[in-house]
UniProtKB/TrEMBL annotation:
Belongs to the bacterial solute-binding protein 1 family. GO terms for cellular component: outer membrane-bounded periplasmic space. Pfam families: SBP_bac_6. It comes from Micromonospora mirobrigensis. GO terms for biological process: iron ion transport. Residues 1-24 form the signal peptide. This is Iron(III) transport system substrate-binding protein. InterPro entries: Ferric-bd.
Amino acid sequence: MPVPARRSTATLLAAGLLSVGLVACGSGESEDADPGKPGDKILTIYSGRNEQLVKPLLDRFSQQSGITVRTRYATTAQLAAQLVEEGDRSPADAFFAQDAGALGAVSKRKMFAALPADAVQKVPQTYRSRGGEWVGVSARSRVLAYNADVVPAAELPTSVFELTDPKWKGRIGVAPTNASFQAFVTAIKVQHGEARAKEFLAGLAANEPQIRENNVKIVEDVNAGAIPVGLVNHYYIGEVAKEQGSTPEALKAKLHFFPGGDTGALVNVAGVGVLKRSAQDPDTRAFVDFLLNPESQRYFAEQTFEYPVVAGVTGPAGVPPLADLDSPDIDLNDLDTLDATIALIKDSGLVP
């Protein structure tokens, strides 16, 4: 049953909270341990980033800093709802989110502390909150993944809105419960208005898209020829190639970057916010600094195939430079209406 847009983020996502109980804890620590105290060398991180992508980086942080890291993994939307539900009782020190929209949704509930200015100023204004409550640590572009053997380049759409054309019926892969897809829909609202977003979702649903759990599944199926095209983030091509012991160039799945500032070319960020209770904790400051240091920025470029957001670090191979992307003029701070967006997606029928 569709969820009314007026309900809160926590209520909208309550159904997903049950699955958040599956927790991965580092260094042998239990999730039931008492919340840490400032400077105790224990850090609890809620991570909406995929464990396979970021666990090696978090392990490296723990090894280098001597700080024990307890990590709770779930989807970014689930963890945003978890934080809102917990409020001041949350044991989390930091929220490592997949997209700016979820960070904004938590931030506007006044749950984040302002980050140190010298940390956030390492990142361009485009990729951080206006008030310094969260900061992007890596960037990614929305793209259309396509199988070059199935869809000739000449037939690729010039706008994401063309995917509602009946010729794409049953041929599109989407992951409507994924945070990046939700942020993309929010971007349509910001750039074109809610009516256009509803129209797009209705047209997409009418085209009977192939629903997948996440971006990886979409890229795998596009590469295998099971789906001709799919809406994903650019870096999943690199991730799938890595999993298959191959290279992005060798895959049949290729990337199409929508031109002309199209909403389908949204550049979003993964980022981090620090909960207010941990504002004075040197451990959280160490974590933010770690994510923005050159070594971690190179990790994002070389291991997860994302764009670094700190100057002086070379971007991932095989994709256009971040500065050359023809992305829409959208303020990431305006992507904070997560609750309303999820309601729209539910109303469209893309999510049961």
